[in-house]
Recover the amino acids of this structure.
């Protein structure tokens, strides 16, 4: 029978009790190899350059990275290494920043042993994994965005929504008036009402607001 592949793991964290527990769990597992522990960036880079590592488990809150972008740099320098975030707490902004650099595996330190190993397995196999607590944060964020979209659209008339989309397409006030077969001054009036309802001051802000509200899809703007 072929021998199963053992994944090599490095831990980057400064929380002693957690790292010791992780080390013991990994050393007692037949599927994983504990390759090192570090609490600073210089030692982490040395470890990754000297050892073949499949997975980096890191707590960005307790490891002096100097910014999320450092994780992204480490990932680019070591494309064969998967990254699992294991932390005490995370907020919506953290999730957004982590997502921007390609992190898609995040769990909290309150997770069970079983969930930890499920997360590790998913991460090394390049599958997305979020713990239940992380999913709840994402769900609340999604619901808040949906509610914001609904509330915004409820305050707009169908004609105003149509005009917003025409503005996004780059049409001038004169062109909008011609296309809708209404007067120039009526379009101006609609624009003023839209700006008032959205509490914005210019076209650039309107476009950004409309994108966030879901009124405009799959377009690029250079503002």
């Amino acid at each position: 029978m072929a021998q199963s592949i053992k994944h090599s793991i490095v831990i980057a964290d400064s929380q002693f009790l957690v790292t010791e527990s992780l080390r013991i769990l990994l050393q007692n597992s037949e599927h994983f190899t504990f390759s090192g522990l570090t609490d600073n960036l210089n030692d982490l880079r040395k470890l990754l350059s000297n050892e073949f590592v499949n997975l980096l488990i890191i707590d960005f809150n307790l490891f002096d990275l100097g910014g999320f972008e450092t994780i992204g740099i480490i990932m680019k320098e070591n494309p064969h290494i998967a990254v699992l975030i294991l932390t005490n707490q995370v907020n919506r902004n953290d999730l957004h920043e982590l997502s921007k650099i390609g992190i898609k595996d995040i769990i909290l330190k309150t997770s069970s042993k079983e969930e930890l190993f499920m997360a590790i397995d998913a991460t090394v196999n390049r599958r997305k994994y979020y713990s239940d607590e992380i999913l709840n944060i994402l769900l609340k964020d999604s619901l808040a965005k949906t509610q914001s979209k609904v509330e915004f659209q409820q305050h707009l008339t169908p004609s105003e929504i149509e005009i917003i989309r025409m503005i996004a397409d780059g049409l001038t006030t004169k062109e909008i008036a011609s296309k809708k077969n209404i007067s120039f001054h009526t379009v101006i009036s609609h624009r003023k009402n839209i700006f008032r309802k959205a509490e914005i001051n210019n076209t650039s802000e309107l476009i950004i607001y409309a994108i966030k509200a879901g009124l405009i899809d799959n377009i690029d703007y250079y503002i």
Q: What stands out?
A: Residues 132-154 form the longest helix (23 residues). DSSP finds ten helices and six strands in the chain. The longest strand covers residues 32-38.
